[in-house]
Design brief:
This protein has about 120 residues and is α+β, with helices and mostly antiparallel strands. The chain is about 30% helix and about 30% strand. It holds the Pfam family FliO.
Length: about 120
């Protein structure tokens, strides 16, 4: 049942297609639930659903799954931070002293470009 597209405060919970260019959509806005009819170029608010049991069930289905990050598994954000920090080992670990970070390589290339073009250094 639950799924569909979502925005920051809107969520398409369910759609029932009734025929060509005809459907009803269940839309959650915050903690409110609306049934909307769609036909050709028209949208019509059919009703607001206020059944607390249905609202609770849908909110539970739409809740993001709980992931156990306590087990030491690294998430995407941790991997991304590691890559942005030079891609060496664990998050926060520095690269070996004789290896340049991506930022240092870019700065060196910019300096070569500026020197080649006749610009003076920024420092």
């Amino acid at each position: 049942m639950a799924g569909g597209r979502s925005g920051l405060h809107l969520r398409l919970v369910d759609t029932l297609h009734l025929g060509p260019n005809r459907a009803v959509h269940l839309i959650m806005v915050g903690k409110q639930l609306f049934l909307v009819g769609a036909a050709e170029r028209n949208l019509t608010l059919l009703t607001e659903i206020s059944d607390p049991d249905l609202l609770g069930t849908i909110q539970a289905e739409l809740a993001p799954p709980v992931t156990g990050r306590q087990g030491g598994g690294k998430g995407f954000a941790d991997h991304l931070k590691g890559l942005l920090n030079g891609g060496f080992g664990e998050v926060g670990s520095a690269p070996p002293p004789d290896v340049m970070t991506p930022t240092q390589r870019i700065e060196e290339r910019l300096m070569k470009y500026r020197t080649h073009r006749g610009y003076k250094s920024d420092g």
